[in-house]
Design goal:
5 strands, alpha+beta, about 120 residues
């Protein structure tokens, strides 16, 4: 079975020492990431995806710092993978859930990559 771009990103972020999931964990740790795909495109055998990465931490300042580290990994380290053609930061912004005291930043990336289609 071919890997999805989401599973590639989750595995890569976990290999860098972060705790990343594809959905909200049932019992979330204090600091973690949630990777999601919100759009896609395909042209001439090259795929693209709009990916969100939500960075959760114990305070807004810590969430901002985590987001900063993840942006660096996404923009400078991830393109070293052979299937990744390019990574572009679309936007990033705070998204506090003050009623639940869950602090997060969300970054939106446009990623161009080669998908391994199995028949």
């Amino acid at each position: 079975m071919a890997k999805t771009i989401e599973s590639i990103l989750i595995g890569y972020l976990n290999s860098k020492g972060y705790t990343a999931y594809g959905e909200e964990p049932e019992k979330p740790p204090r600091e973690y990431l949630v990777v999601g795909k919100v759009g896609s495109r395909h042209t001439n055998h090259i795929d693209g995806a709009v990916i969100t990465i939500r960075s959760y931490s114990g305070s807004m300042e810590q969430a901002a710092e985590l987001n900063k580290h993840i942006k660096r990994i996404m923009l400078y380290d991830l393109p070293e993978l052979s299937d990744i053609v390019g990574v572009y930061l679309n936007s990033d912004y705070p998204q506090a859930e003050t009623d639940t005291r869950r602090y997060r930043y969300q970054a939106v990336y446009d990623i161009t990559y080669y998908e391994d289609y199995e028949e």
